[in-house]
Amino acid sequence: MKSKSRQLMFGLMLVGGAAGSLAASLVWAQSETATDPVAEYRAMFGDDNPAALWITRGQDLWNEVRGPKGTSLAKSCDLGLGAGVVKGAYAHMPRYFADTKKVQDLDSRLLTCMVKGQGLDEAAILKNRFGDGDRKSDLEALASYIVDASKGVAISLPLDHPQEKQAYETGKAIFFYRAATHDFSCATCHGQVGKRIRLQQLPDLAQAGPDAQATYTAWPAYRVSQGEVRTMEWRIGDCFRQQRLPELKYGSEAAIDLTMFLAKNAEGGKMAAPGLKR
Question: Where is the Cytochrome c domain (predicted)?
Answer without folding.
Answer: 166-278
